[in-house]
């Protein structure tokens, strides 16, 4: 039985590091998508195909916002739960999930 002042377990540290790595990868993907959207926005000013693609992207973004927001809230809740040191009642669990590739995101939204 561990006391409240006991150092975090190795499992908890490993899970926390995995969460940080996953979050960093997702942030990189978001930044890459932001750059692509900016580029598409600039091209849309002169290229009709780019304008059409941008309009489709905007339509998808607005229609998919609510489910995306709910998924993000669930993910953040799970990460907050796992960021706490484990107790005897709550053993650490892995949250490692595959990170969507940028190519898959491009196929879906562009």
Automatic annotation (TrEMBL):
Residues 66-76 have a biased composition (Basic and acidic residues). It comes from the Bacteria. Residues 90-100 have a biased composition (Polar residues). Residues 63-110 are annotated as: Disordered. This is Uncharacterized protein.
